[in-house]
Design a protein that fits this description.
Length: 126
C-alpha cells in the first residue's frame, strides 16, 4: 500500500492526504483495543496518525493541536493506554522527535483499509 509518496508520483500534500484518508474514515469511537504494541504507524500530518493494530485494522488518531514533528531518523511513537484500550480524551501520544512533549488523543476513527487500497489500485491503473 502506498500511503505516502510512490515512485514516479508527485508527493501528496498533507492536506490532500488527510482529505483522502478522511474519505475512508468512519464515525469516531470512544476507545479501541490496544495491547501495548502496534503493527505500524504512519504520520499523516502534525495532528493525525494512521495506527495499524492488526493486519487489516487501521485507525486514524486525531491529536489535540499540532504537536508531532517527525524527523528523518527512525521515528518511534509511544502511546499510553489504560486497561488494554486507547481512549479518546484520555490517552496520549509522544514521539522520540520531541522528548517530553505529549499529545492527547482527541478522536479515533476506523479506516476502511480495503476501500482505500481499492481506490489506490484503481487510481494507479489509470
Amino acid at each position: 500500500v502506498c500511503l505516502t509518496s510512490c515512485a514516479g508520483m508527485p508527493r501528496e500534500t498533507d492536506a490532500a492526504r488527510l482529505a483522502r484518508v478522511m474519505s475512508f474514515a468512519g464515525a469516531p469511537v470512544g476507545s479501541i483495543p490496544y495491547i501495548g504494541h502496534d503493527r505500524g504507524f504512519d504520520v499523516v500530518d502534525d495532528q493525525h496518525i494512521l495506527l495499524t493494530t492488526r493486519p487489516r485494522q487501521v485507525w486514524l488518531l486525531e491529536l489535540m493541536g499540532p504537536c508531532l514533528r517527525m524527523d528523518a531518523a527512525s521515528p518511534s511513537l509511544q502511546i499510553s493506554s489504560m486497561g488494554g484500550r486507547i481512549s479518546a480524551g484520555l490517552d496520549r501520544v509522544s514521539s522520540n522527535s520531541q522528548p517530553g512533549m505529549t499529545c492527547i488523543v482527541k478522536r479515533i476513527r476506523p479506516v476502511d483499509l480495503q476501500a482505500m487500497n481499492a481506490a489506490h489500485t484503481a487510481g494507479a491503473a489509470r
